[in-house]
Amino acid sequence: MGKTKITNRQLCFITLGVSLGGSVLVVSALMASIAKQDAWLGAIAAVVFGFPVIWILVFLGRRFPDKNYIECLQSVWGRPVGTVMAVLSMNLWITLSYHISWYVGDFMTSQSMPETPAYVINLVFIAAVAVAVRYGLETISRAFEIFILISASLFLIATVLILPNAKIENLQPVLENGLPAVFKSAFFMSAFVTYPVYTIMMVYPTETDDLKAAGKNMLTGYLFSSIISFLAIILSILVLGWQITANTRYPAFRLAKEIELGVVFTRIEFIIFFSWILTQFIINTMLFYSAVKGIAQLFRLKDHKKLVLPFALVVFVLSGVVFPDVFYQENWIVFVWAPYAFIHGFVIPLLTIILYFVRGGKKKFSNSHVS
User: Fold this and answer.
1) CATH assignment of 13-365, given 3.40.50.150, 1.20.1740.10, 3.60.15.10, 3.40.50.920?
2) What are residue 233's phi and psi, to 5 degrees?
3) pLDDT digits (tens, 9 = 90+) for 238-272
4) Cα separation, 98 vs 106, whole angstroms
5) Which of 22, 71, 368 is closest to 30 using CA atoms?
6) Deepest in the core among 138, 195, 295, 347, taking most CB within 10 A?
7) How wide is the angle at C-alpha 150 spanned by C-alphas 146 and 153, nearest 5°?
8) For the whole model, what pTM was predicted?
9) Number of helical (H) and strand (E) elements in the chain, helices listed first
10) Domain segments of the chain: what residues?
11) Cα–Cα distance between 29 and 71 in angstroms, integer?
């Protein structure tokens, strides 16, 4: 049986979903606490910095068109070191998988279903992810096309409805806290929007049907996700102000509560709720898929689908105990997640390119196999 192939349009949507991830609902508060009313400038800086990062991933894909990320690491770094790096990446993917499941459970129990145990919500969410991975990449990518269109449409509707409440004075004074705060906030936004995109390397370029156009579609997907993240941040500042944004756990959801359509249409905030759940499903599915596929590859298993159930159980159990409290979770993002994502999503791919050229570049690796 030949390899699964996805269209470049589907790759664009997958990239958009993975990049968007948890940023819409979560990252605004963190950025506002750092850059205050200049958080929107940090969002722009993060987007600008992100394009070279995506270019690095595209470059690696074009230099190793028949290898996924794990095979690429083993080829450039050698099997022992490359395998260690691959294991660390898979650990990150599994870790993020149960972290995202925790976020879904925490959000739903704190915002809409307080009497429902978080474990029950996590179970339903993880079961949906596991079923999606069992169906395979083609089914996942087709579903993502629908989910992204729905999610983006709902977000656009919410954006239009919230605009009348915007106050331009909430953005003033500009650069009151200087450029360092702007760049620091950009670094943390990149940890949510830019660095996780390297997960796509488990399907790009090996599963794509047009290598030349695939890179452009990855960049396009990243651009659209960055625009959505930027809108979420600047609208939070414009409508809520940086103080409320910084002290609200889910600013985008709080933002949607400001929408007023008389007495006929109520609870409009669940537009954002449904949109966010879809993006969480997309990124978690890709993380879970990449992890089990990578593990199957390292252990030379013929079918990664046999690993779905046991790892789903692991993710389910850990999703309930990963964060003992919100304070711990917030500190983990600042002191662990941001540097960890920076290393995996930028430093390692960059060092891989440097080593690629040091070892001889295209001439060395054009006909080589994993060594």
Assistant:
1) 1.20.1740.10
2) -75, -50
3) 988 899 888 888 887 777 777 766 554 556 667 77
4) 12
5) 22
6) 195
7) 140
8) 0.89
9) 17, 0
10) 13-365
11) 38
